[in-house]
Amino acid sequence: MTEPMVVVENLSKVYRTGQIEVHALKSVSFSVQPGQLVAVQGRSGSGKTTMLNLIGGLDAPEQGRVVVDGHEVTALDEAGLLRLRRETVGFVFQSFGLISVLSAAENVGVPLRLARVGGEEREDRVRRLLALVGLQAHVNQRPYELSGGQQQRVAIARALANRPRLLIADEPTGQLDSQTGREIMQLIQALVRTQGVTAIVATHDPGLLNLADTVLELRDGALVGQAAVPV
Length: 231
Ligand code: ADP
Ligand code: MG
Fold this sequence. Notes:
The structure is a single chain. By secondary structure, the chain is α/β, with parallel strands linked by helices. The chain has helices spanning 48-55, 78-88, 104-114, 119-132, 148-159, 178-195; strands at 6-17, 20-32, 37-41, 63-68, 71-72, 89-93, 166-170, 198-202, 214-219, 222-228. It has a domain at 99-163. It contains 6 helices and 10 strands. The strands form 2 sheets. Strands 6-7-8-3-9-10 form a 6-stranded mixed sheet, sandwiched between helices. It has a 4-stranded antiparallel sheet with strand order 2-1-4-5, covered by helices on one side. Strand 1 (6-17) and strand 2 form a beta hairpin. Helix 5 (148-159) runs parallel beside helix 6. The longest helix is centred in the C-terminal third of the chain and has 18 residues, at 178-195. It is globular. Residues 15, 17, 22, 24, 42, 44-50 line the site of adenosine-5'-diphosphate (ADP).
């Protein structure tokens, strides 16, 4: 048996605002094998973002445990979480999150600079990453000179810059038309197949679920379904 890339055990999260408690995640457990593309579905408010943030160490749970690539995320201190986010996990968000004054290449170079990858090696890696996502002809364009789908490709290249084992994407197609959304999901699928990265992708577009190896369904914070997608 290979070690799972992600283990989630009895994970719960409660948000408290004044007197009101929201049970955003209710004792969720599952594991993800390396090299899998996992889709997380569920309507708005079902807990998808909460769960992805807990897996990536962006937030802390009420209860439960997360292990990513052998690192016990829920036991890491701030420095450990910073390392996890820099080295082990790459994030992609719905709104792309690119820096508008930087070119595509400079955006992809940001995490490499943070990891102190210097000069020529950085430029070389940026070039390869942008080619990997099909943007070799657009390296010097700024985000506003790129389409939404192209911006998300830059964001995916940036997320992969430090060769993470796990890619976490929170509704990466949410701002895209359905055809472009499908192309982005297909790109993520191709990266999982060719780069050996494992991916967990939240989506509420049912048309994209057949690209995943496994679909997890959240409803009101509870995991209600877990299915391998028939091929
Ligand atoms: P999804 O990503 O599936 O739309 P979320 O994880 O964002 O769902 O939200 C799950 C539930 O938790 C929702 O009821 C939402 O309103 C609530 N929630 C999310 N973030 C916060 C927060 N920071 N403070 C209070 N409630 C929150
Ligand atoms: Mg969300």
